[in-house]
Amino acid sequence: MKVLIVYWSGTGNTEAMANAVCEGARDAGADVVLYPVGEAGDVSDCDVLLLGCPAMGDEELEPEEFEPFFAAIESSLSGRKIGLFGSYEWADGEWMRIWQARVEAAGGMMIADGVMAYGAPDSDAVAACRNLGKLAAEQ
Residue ranges of the Flavodoxin-like domain (predicted)? Predict the structure, then answer.
Protein backbone atom coordinates (compact mmCIF):
# COMPACT_ATOMS: atom_id res chain seq x y z
CA MET A 1 0.00 0.00 0.00
CA LYS A 2 1.45 3.36 -1.03
CA VAL A 3 0.37 6.34 1.06
CA LEU A 4 1.20 9.92 0.10
CA ILE A 5 0.97 12.63 2.75
CA VAL A 6 1.05 16.29 1.68
CA TYR A 7 0.74 19.07 4.27
CA TRP A 8 1.22 22.77 4.97
CA SER A 9 2.15 24.05 8.41
CA GLY A 10 2.86 27.56 9.61
CA THR A 11 3.35 27.00 13.35
CA GLY A 12 4.41 23.35 13.34
CA ASN A 13 1.09 22.01 14.65
CA THR A 14 -0.04 20.47 11.36
CA GLU A 15 3.51 19.25 10.69
CA ALA A 16 3.43 17.39 14.02
CA MET A 17 0.11 15.87 12.95
CA ALA A 18 1.59 14.87 9.56
CA ASN A 19 4.47 13.13 11.31
CA ALA A 20 2.05 11.20 13.55
CA VAL A 21 -0.05 10.19 10.52
CA CYS A 22 3.15 9.04 8.82
CA GLU A 23 4.19 6.98 11.85
CA GLY A 24 0.79 5.29 12.00
CA ALA A 25 0.90 4.36 8.32
CA ARG A 26 4.50 3.10 8.46
CA ASP A 27 3.85 1.10 11.63
CA ALA A 28 0.93 -0.56 9.80
CA GLY A 29 3.22 -1.56 6.93
CA ALA A 30 2.52 1.09 4.29
CA ASP A 31 5.07 2.54 1.92
CA VAL A 32 4.79 6.21 2.94
CA VAL A 33 5.98 9.40 1.29
CA LEU A 34 5.67 12.67 3.25
CA TYR A 35 6.00 16.10 1.59
CA PRO A 36 5.42 19.69 2.58
CA VAL A 37 3.05 21.07 -0.07
CA GLY A 38 5.81 23.14 -1.68
CA GLU A 39 7.73 19.95 -2.49
CA ALA A 40 4.78 17.82 -3.62
CA GLY A 41 4.63 16.78 -7.23
CA ASP A 42 2.40 14.19 -8.85
CA VAL A 43 -0.18 12.93 -6.38
CA SER A 44 -1.65 10.26 -8.63
CA ASP A 45 0.98 7.60 -7.85
CA CYS A 46 -0.48 6.42 -4.53
CA ASP A 47 -3.24 4.23 -3.19
CA VAL A 48 -4.29 6.73 -0.51
CA LEU A 49 -3.75 10.50 -0.44
CA LEU A 50 -3.66 12.19 2.95
CA LEU A 51 -3.78 15.98 3.07
CA GLY A 52 -3.04 18.25 6.01
CA CYS A 53 -3.71 21.97 6.34
CA PRO A 54 -4.69 24.21 9.27
CA ALA A 55 -7.64 26.57 9.30
CA MET A 56 -6.64 30.04 8.19
CA GLY A 57 -8.38 33.41 8.05
CA ASP A 58 -12.12 32.95 7.86
CA GLU A 59 -12.14 29.14 8.20
CA GLU A 60 -10.31 28.43 4.94
CA LEU A 61 -7.30 26.50 3.67
CA GLU A 62 -3.95 28.31 3.67
CA PRO A 63 -4.38 30.63 0.63
CA GLU A 64 -0.84 31.08 -0.76
CA GLU A 65 0.35 27.49 -1.23
CA PHE A 66 -2.15 24.90 -0.06
CA GLU A 67 -5.40 26.21 -1.57
CA PRO A 68 -3.85 26.59 -5.06
CA PHE A 69 -2.38 23.07 -4.73
CA PHE A 70 -5.70 21.60 -3.61
CA ALA A 71 -7.66 23.45 -6.30
CA ALA A 72 -5.24 22.06 -8.92
CA ILE A 73 -5.80 18.44 -7.84
CA GLU A 74 -9.47 18.70 -6.85
CA SER A 75 -10.79 17.58 -10.23
CA SER A 76 -8.62 14.44 -10.08
CA LEU A 77 -9.99 13.18 -6.75
CA SER A 78 -12.86 11.15 -8.18
CA GLY A 79 -12.62 7.55 -7.03
CA ARG A 80 -9.53 8.26 -4.91
CA LYS A 81 -9.18 7.35 -1.23
CA ILE A 82 -8.59 10.54 0.75
CA GLY A 83 -7.92 11.48 4.37
CA LEU A 84 -7.73 15.00 5.83
CA PHE A 85 -6.14 16.47 8.96
CA GLY A 86 -5.20 19.85 10.39
CA SER A 87 -5.19 22.19 13.34
CA TYR A 88 -7.28 25.23 14.20
CA GLU A 89 -7.36 27.81 16.98
CA TRP A 90 -10.74 29.50 16.71
CA ALA A 91 -14.33 28.77 15.77
CA ASP A 92 -15.47 25.15 15.68
CA GLY A 93 -13.54 23.54 12.84
CA GLU A 94 -15.92 24.52 10.06
CA TRP A 95 -13.00 24.60 7.59
CA MET A 96 -12.67 20.82 7.92
CA ARG A 97 -16.35 20.22 7.16
CA ILE A 98 -16.12 22.50 4.11
CA TRP A 99 -12.91 20.81 2.94
CA GLN A 100 -14.37 17.34 3.38
CA ALA A 101 -17.48 18.38 1.44
CA ARG A 102 -15.23 19.61 -1.39
CA VAL A 103 -13.47 16.24 -1.51
CA GLU A 104 -16.77 14.38 -1.58
CA ALA A 105 -18.26 16.73 -4.21
CA ALA A 106 -15.23 15.98 -6.40
CA GLY A 107 -15.92 12.25 -6.04
CA GLY A 108 -13.18 11.53 -3.51
CA MET A 109 -13.82 8.74 -1.01
CA MET A 110 -13.07 9.81 2.56
CA ILE A 111 -11.45 6.97 4.52
CA ALA A 112 -12.53 8.66 7.79
CA ASP A 113 -13.80 12.00 9.02
CA GLY A 114 -11.13 14.69 9.03
CA VAL A 115 -8.86 14.69 12.08
CA MET A 116 -8.61 18.03 13.89
CA ALA A 117 -6.45 19.35 16.71
CA TYR A 118 -7.18 22.54 18.60
CA GLY A 119 -3.80 24.25 18.61
CA ALA A 120 -0.86 21.94 19.21
CA PRO A 121 -1.93 18.31 18.96
CA ASP A 122 -2.44 16.75 22.39
CA SER A 123 -2.11 13.02 23.07
CA ASP A 124 -5.67 12.35 21.84
CA ALA A 125 -5.04 14.20 18.57
CA VAL A 126 -1.71 12.41 18.06
CA ALA A 127 -3.47 9.06 18.61
CA ALA A 128 -6.20 10.07 16.12
CA CYS A 129 -3.51 11.01 13.58
CA ARG A 130 -1.72 7.70 14.02
CA ASN A 131 -5.05 5.94 13.59
CA LEU A 132 -5.68 7.87 10.35
CA GLY A 133 -2.32 6.64 9.08
CA LYS A 134 -3.18 3.08 10.13
CA LEU A 135 -6.55 3.30 8.34
CA ALA A 136 -4.78 4.53 5.21
CA ALA A 137 -2.40 1.56 5.32
CA GLU A 138 -5.34 -0.85 5.61
CA GLN A 139 -7.22 0.44 2.54
Answer: 3-137
